[in-house]
Write a structure and sequence with these properties.
With 232 residues, the chain is an alpha/beta fold. It contains 9 helices and 7 strands, in the order αααβαβαββαβαααββ. The radius of gyration is 17 Å and the shape is globular.
Length: 232
């Protein structure tokens, strides 16, 4: 992403960091199914997997994964230091296996591969080419047989469907007890979105070399994508 785009995202999410978790269920109408499905797809064959969480925010997705793999070694990357500070509070000092990095994950490098790369509600902030470049990077960061789970939002495949997704979401979040200020802040954050259609993203993943690529869950524009790097 450009430096200007990074700064806009960082500013918006620094502003919401303290309230982010308390608003999740209200802003994600399918919250339980969305995160539970994504978490259930993180399946590895040993008890201390090395996991990379891209756009980790407050560590919500990682917290669910940690519930299944308490000995996991998790690296959380996010542009917003304020969001990562909340993640540190969530996991506490006892979680020695957690690493926090405040930077643009598109430039992240690692000499040791990961068993799994996860992401939730982050990659849709990237331009299309940046998404494709990131998928290629993720493929390289994974061990043979490693998996990628992306819980995110996508663009409708037609203008009608895209408007249908938007209007459904607006109706449902406005039916919650979120304050007008919180709703307006959420709408402002959507201006940072650069969503791409689901089918295009699945094809981009296949083009990188991933196999068993699928959309395992879909609720309007909330989706959970799965992809696996072939084992040697």
């Amino acid at each position: 992403m450009s430096e200007q785009a990074n700064q806009q995202i960082t500013t918006k999410f620094n502003e919401i960091a303290e309230k982010y978790d308390s608003q999740r269920r209200k802003l994600i109408p399918c919250f339980d199914d969305f995160y539970h499905t994504a978490t259930s797809l993180v399946q590895v064959d040993h008890t201390s997997p090395r996991i990379l969480d891209l756009g980790a925010g407050t560590g919500l997705f990682s917290s669910y994964v940690l519930g299944n793999y308490p000995n996991a070694r998790i690296t959380l990357i996010d542009l917003s230091q304020s969001m990562l500070d909340i993640a540190k509070q969530r996991f506490g000092e006892t979680q020695a296996n957690m690493t926090y990095i405040a930077e643009d994950y598109s430039i992240f490098k690692s000499s040791e591969p990961f068993d799994c790369v996860i992401s939730s509600l982050s990659i849709h902030h990237l331009e299309d080419q940046a998404k494709q470049d990131l998928y290629e990077k993720i493929f390289k960061l994974l061990k043979p047989g490693g998996i990628f789970v992306n819980a995110d939002q996508v663009q409708g495949s037609s203008p009608f469907l895209d408007q249908l997704y938007r209007s459904d979401w607006v109706a449902k979040v406005e039916a919650t007890d979120l304050t007008p200020e919180a709703l307006q802040a959420a709408y402002e954050r959507t201006k940072l979105d650069k969503m791409a259609p689901l089918d295009e993203q699945l094809n981009w993943l296949r083009a990188c070399g991933f196999i068993d690529v699928d959309c395992v869950y879909k609720y309007y524009n909330f989706v959970v994508m799965y992809a696996q790097k072939p084992a040697i």
